[in-house]
Design a protein that fits this description.
Elements lengths: L12 H13 L4 H10 L1 E6 L7 E4 L4 E6 L2 H16 L4 H12 L7 H12 L15 H11 L9 H4 L16 H4 L4
Parallel strand pairs: 1-3
Antiparallel strand pairs: 2-3
The structure holds zinc ion.
The site of zinc ion has 4 residues, from helix 3 and helix 6.
Length: about 180
Amino acid sequence: MPAYSAISAHTNPAVAAFRDDVLTRFPYTLDARAWLSAEIDFEVADLASTRGGGYWIPEENKVYLFTAQYEAAIHELAHAWWHERRIGQEEALMEATIALSEERDPRYRRLRDLAYGYIHGIPAQGWAGMLVERNDWEMYAGMASGMMADLRLVPPYIRRFYLSMYTLLPDDAPSPARMAPHE
Ligand SMILES: [Zn+2]
């Protein structure tokens, strides 16, 4: 086991408090809370900022965040969660993302638009998208932060890949992202 740094949730109570805030403010399952708390190192460089950004560092089994932004935390924690669970599901996730890019139900429009960019790229920005790179890895984490852990924003054929990590909220529950004090 590597030594934990001074900005790790394993040694720093303020970082642990932010991690626990993410894992309880957003509808993580009990399994996911336990696993992400115990098995993953979680570092935040600057708790005073919410500017965003970060990495998942698989060799170190570590989520590293520049700041205490919920969106970045949700994104990088999703990378950590999917890293080994993806094995054998890569193609299925990409097929589901293609289906989402063509989804006609208006409830899912926002994530449909996100998926459309992943599949078709954004030519005006010179971006070919993720499908050409077979990048299920980034699709998974991108949709996780795109929906801010709220599975109501994606159709059931996408939800199923996230149901071990997130709980599906009731229709009338408020949006956790909208209730949050910042992004
Ligand atoms: Zn990512």
